[in-house]
Automatic annotation (TrEMBL):
Residues 143-155 have a biased composition (Acidic residues). PANTHER family: SH3 DOMAIN-BINDING GLUTAMIC ACID-RICH PROTEIN HOMOLOG, SH3 DOMAIN-BINDING GLUTAMIC ACID-RICH-LIKE PROTEIN. Belongs to the SH3BGR family. Residues 122-155 are annotated as: Disordered. It comes from the Eukaryota. It comes from Daphnia pulex (Water flea). This is Uncharacterized protein. InterPro entries: Glut_rich_SH3-bd, SH3BGR, Thioredoxin-like_sf. GO terms for cellular component: cytoplasm.
């Protein structure tokens, strides 16, 4: 089951590029099996024609613009555009949007990226706050000496 993710690598539209990147990062982090199809690649002329014929443009637009999502395992393979994808992510309905069976995606940590390159990893259990301290696998030399003294006293 492969989702086809139609993008345009050649675009002056920064918003389109940002949306394509965000959608790709989300699908990767969710473990979605997808194929990226660049409609600007001359080798993908048939795919570009397919996308334009089958995708639905927003607000009566003449042509639908990337990113667009399709799932070829269904007779009605069109899943939707970025706005629909974003809404599905917000409502935790990505499988439904991409026409994947419920529970088919692996349970993996979700990595949220922002425009400034920092990452926030959300997992089921919380990571303890260390207030700037870095945990070390071994105790400090002072702590080792104290433990050795305690062991000597016990003997």
């Amino acid at each position: 089951m492969v989702v086809k993710f139609y993008i345009s690598m050649v675009s002056g539209n920064k918003e389109m590029k940002k949306r394509q990147m965000k959608a790709q990062l989300i699908m990767e982090s969710k473990g979605v099996n997808f194929q990226v199809i660049d409609i600007c690649d001359p080798n993908n002329e048939d795919e570009r024609t397919f996308m334009r014929k089958n995708a639905v443009g927003r607000n009566n637009a003449r042509n639908a613009v990337p990113p667009q999502f399709f799932n070829d395992d269904h007779e009605d393979s069109y899943c939707g555009d970025y706005e629909g994808f974003d809404e599905a992510v917000e409502n935790d309905r990505i499988e439904e949007f991409l026409k994947l069976p419920r529970g088919s995606l692996p349970q993996v940590p979700v990595i949220n990226h922002n425009l400034f390159g920092s990452r926030d990893v959300s997992m089921e259990k919380e990571i303890p706050q260390l207030n700037g301290a870095v945990p070390s696998p071994r105790p400090s030399p002072e702590k080792e000496e104290e433990e050795e003294e305690e062991e000597d006293e016990e003997m």
